[in-house]
Amino acid sequence: MLCFKINRQLSTDLRKSDDLSLSFTLEKPVYFSKYRYTITEREVEFYLIANKGTQGYLIPEMKSADYFIIIKNFYDDEELELYLDRLNAIPEVVVAAELDPAKLKSKENLIF
Q1: Which segments in the chain show pLDDT lower than 50?
Q2: Element at 73 (helix H, strand E)
Q3: Which of 13, 19, 45, 102 could be disulfide-bonded to 31 (CB atoms 3.0-4.6 Å)?
Q4: pTM (2 decimals)?
């Protein structure tokens, strides 16, 4: 449902892809729901990833966040502001804000 609303609001086409699998310890991997959309001509990739996985959090220091949108190869600050404004206009979105991954303790979890 959230993915549908994001697609409509941002004119994207996020689609379910294989879950993100991370191994935090020697135990079983933890799986996180992942959706993907690519703007081929600009080589920009959007990912919507659940913060809560099968047995833990993608970013444990941000347990209050349900999802993260990761945008790879994106460089237009004005367009990013527009995306944030549009995301914040979705009633189910409490807050959409830009995060500096360098300030996260578990930033390595965002590398895939």
Answers
A1: none
A2: none
A3: 19
A4: 0.88
